[in-house]
Amino acid sequence: MNKKSQRENAFKAAAIREIRERRLAVTRQLLGNQTLARFGAEPSIAGIVEEEEKHSAAVYFPVENEDYFFAVYLDTVPEASLRFTGMVPGCRVYGRIGSETRDLPELLSLFPSEACEQWQKGDPISNRSSARCLFSGMTIEPDQRMYMEPEAKLDGLLEVLERYPEHFPPADDFFVHIQIAYYGYREQMSGIHLSAKAMSRLAALGLELDIDLHAGGPDLFAEP
After folding, report:
1. Residue 47 has pLDDT above 90, yes or no
2. For residues 177 and 195, is the Cβ–Cβ distance under 8 A?
3. Is 126 exposed, middle or buried (0-12, 13-18, 19+ CB in 10 A)?
């Protein structure tokens, strides 16, 4: 087993210990009315993010029937130990490119190898509907990990789009806009922060930004 795997196993063990023992009041409140998704006997883990320079790590657990996550934050030096816990949103951050006049191959040629979804004008919108797509399009979503912070995902998406300055601002016969879909726990929603730098980068590319906020989950558990 390599050092990275050993460290991640230590992070998992420390995080699962807090879920089992619920030493922090905030853990008891957040999980009192909610159930974590499970893989066998243990809670499922969506991902682990370590920030070595900050001597910290976060372990993300999916919440059953919800799109947000329970996170256990750890100190990593001198060993993995509990710092705090909280709910974090699930989110998607992607660029949508579309055109009513350009066909799909033309759009794909603008951003080669970047598309994660694509559709042609006239394609069925879904298997459950007879409606057809009114324009050809594609999406670019570099980071598809739902538990990552939207600000970090936006930064990564802008880095990809900035590789193609010749296409910005977009021409009249196709559009590009950024979509943020945010799925938070209604009792602990941190929201989205757009820095002046991020807004300047969006403006320099001539991009519109759509933000869809979704709040869900049960009431916060009140300890007796």
Report:
1. yes
2. no
3. exposed
